[in-house]
Design goal:
The chain has 377 residues and is α+β, with helices and mostly antiparallel strands. The protein has helices at 12-17, 21-25, 35-51, 68-85, 143-153, 184-201, 212-215, 225-246, 252-281, 303-310, 316-319, 327-333, 336-339, 342-345, and strands spanning 92-100, 105-118, 123-129, 164-171, 176-181, 289-293, 299-300, 348-349, 355-359. A hairpin with a 4-residue loop joins β1 (92-100) and β2.
């Protein structure tokens, strides 16, 4: 099971909703690892060590040093698992490899963060650590955790022996700790859906079905033609609704249903912009677009030095509110000639703005980036 599966539990939410995404993503990944993903991998490693008995502190992953916020997140996860493990009287599996081969779906396999079992009654608990700060994740109807749970059960003939199967998500940075009970009826229904999705994904004309849930983490969402067609359809409906609003003949129920689809259109536009940015940042050209330096805010080079110098030129009420005024406000207190004086300009630092996308008519000069291939040895 060391080879990564195209049907890994973490991808099942996408695959169950869009079977064609498996073949679409094969050898055509457009997304790259981010600092957030790398941090998540790091904190998962730390949690593995913590569950194995290594004390949680900033030096637990030497030579890497964790910050206080990361340590606190780990401590919250450990506390959650420790409280749950008090009710188990059998083994706790850490980073346990699981497969659905015993349910006739060998294509689905992966590694579960925590598996806890208890006897009398027979209960199994599955815990998954989530260290993201942006999107909350919940245990209810979570395809990834359902797959882990069934993999921990190991075989269809053992499913009925468990009185309860509980799924848990621990996401400390969003203060989200959720749990959900997987019933045997729901497990059997899910297995039927998973078998069909895997079979369909392997077929010659596997359907690609765009949608908010399945497109969110898809590797090829930025260049998917079916998603583009869906976005065009939604956009056409939006403009049609605008005419209805203008003519005061709108069907409010239809408009409400349309409004529910607007986030998909906004997401597509954002992903399209990200794709163009990624091409330009990689050193490639893109017709009619360029990356330029974005706006930035001036700051004091050294606030204490600035305060000492400003007191020679301004009264205290011109410098302070409840604390020292912002640079922008102090500029307004100074006469125009003084704002350009060397003594004042020397106090200020204006950092470079973050690279931002602009069209070819923007007057700002294009930034230059080296192609990634130039760095390959």
């Amino acid at each position: 099971m060391s080879i990564h599966s195209e049907f890994s539990p973490s991808r099942l939410s996408r695959i169950l909703a869009c079977p064609g995404s498996v073949q679409a993503c094969r050898g055509n990944q457009t997304t790259k690892s981010s600092k957030y993903a790398e941090e998540g991998t790091l904190l998962h490693l730390a949690m593995t060590k913590a569950m194995e008995g290594v004390p949680i502190d900033k030096h637990m992953l030497k030579p890497i040093t964790l910050d206080q916020e990361q340590v606190e997140a780990l401590q919250e996860c450990y506390k959650y698992a420790n409280e749950l493990s008090q009710f188990t009287n059998t083994g706790v599996g850490i980073e346990k490899e699981v497969t659905l081969e015993g349910f006739g779906i060998p294509e689905i396999y992966g590694t579960c963060d925590i598996v806890m079992r208890m006897v009398n009654p027979d209960v199994i608990h599955i815990i998954d650590w989530k260290f993201g700060k942006g999107v909350p994740v919940y245990a209810e109807e979570n395809d990834q955790l359902i797959a882990y749970a069934l993999g921990a059960v190991e075989d269809a003939k053992f499913l009925g022996m468990y009185k309860e199967i509980w799924l848990h998500i621990a996401q400390p940075r969003l203060n989200t700790f959720s749990r959900w009970q997987l019933t045997q009826e729901r497990a059997n229904q899910w297995l039927d859906d998973a078998r069909k999705a895997v079979l369909m994904a392997s077929s010659k004309n596997a359907p690609i079905i765009p949608g908010e849930k399945q497109c969110r983490w898809c590797d090829v969402k930025q260049i998917c033609p079916e998603r583009m067609a869906s976005a065009e359809k939604i956009a056409a409906s939006v403009f049609a609704a605008h005419i209805e609003v203008r003519d005061n003949c709108v069907n409010e129920e239809r408009l409400a249903q349309l409004m529910l689809q607007v986030p998909q259109l906004e997401s597509y536009i954002s992903d399209l912009q990200d794709y163009v940015k990624s091409r330009l940042l990689a050193g490639n050209e893109f017709p009619h677009f360029k990356m330029v330096e974005g706006r930035s805010t001036k700051v004091w080079l050294d606030e204490e030095v600035a305060l000492d110098e400003l007191q020679k030129h301004l009264e205290l009420d011109q410098l302070y509110e409840t604390k020292m005024k912002s640079l922008a406000k102090i500029e307004k207190e100074l006469p125009a000639p003084e704002r350009k004086a060397e003594w004042f300009v020397s106090l200020i630092h204006k950092p470079h703005g973050a690279p931002t996308l602009a069209n070819e008519f923007d007057k700002r000069p294009a930034l230059s980036f080296q192609p990634f291939k130039d760095y390959i040895v």
